[in-house]
Design goal:
Keywords: Membrane, Transmembrane, Transmembrane helix. The protein is an all-alpha fold. The chain has one domain. The chain has 4 helices and no strands.
């Protein structure tokens, strides 16, 4: 299993767990993991020549970074978390289908 697959699955799970009422430290942990994970995904996408994917992952790294927090409110963050988790999972299935053909 490739590292990018593990990162996408792990981030998806972390984002979906954000829907529950958890201690604030958990959300800080998720932001830190998202920054590192999305930075890695941006780097690997760029290395593969996928500049569009690299740009998206870089934007997500900036959105989730823990240093200069973007205040969206809990409801909007929940929507963002679900959309990003679904997008990451969809990207896994699209990559799998691309390798099958």
């Amino acid at each position: 299993m490739h590292l990018s697959v593990v990162i996408k699955l792990a981030l998806s799970i972390l984002f979906l767990l954000c829907l529950f009422q958890l201690p604030y430290g958990y959300y800080e942990f998720v932001r830190f993991c998202a920054l590192i994970g999305f930075a890695w995904l941006a780097y690997t996408s760029y290395q593969k020549g996928n500049t569009g994917g690299a740009f998206i992952y870089l934007a997500l790294a900036i959105l989730f970074q823990p240093l200069l927090k973007i205040a969206l409110g809990r409801t909007l963050w929940n929507i963002v978390d679900v959309l990003v988790a679904v997008g990451l999972l969809a990207s896994l299935f699209l990559e799998t289908e691309k390798f099958k053909n």
